[in-house]
């Protein structure tokens, strides 16, 4: 029974490791996919801030859709 528990723990740890690797890969893909405009680093007014936020949301939506279809590796 101890061996079965140890095997289960090893499997859970491996699954967690693979999930962390996949999350890191996805984060890196997002960073490569979306590069905000320089003005978005420090928006000068609320209109620009809204535009930057909208651009981010549109890009994130497109990224997630393409990621789910396997178009982004």
What does this structure look like?
By secondary structure, the chain is mainly alpha-helical. The chain has two helices and no strands. It starts with a helix and ends in a 5-residue tail after the last helix.
Distance between the termini: 41 Å
Rough shape? elongated
Q: Note the total helix count.
A: 2
Strand segment tally: 0
- State the major sheet: none
Mean pLDDT: 95
> Helix proportion of residues, in percent?
over 70%
Q: Rg to the nearest angstrom?
A: 19 Å
Class based on secondary structure composition and strand pairing: mainly alpha
Please trace the helix and strand order, writing H or E for each element: HH
Regions with pLDDT < 50 over 5+ consecutive residues? none
Percentage of β-strand residues? under 5%
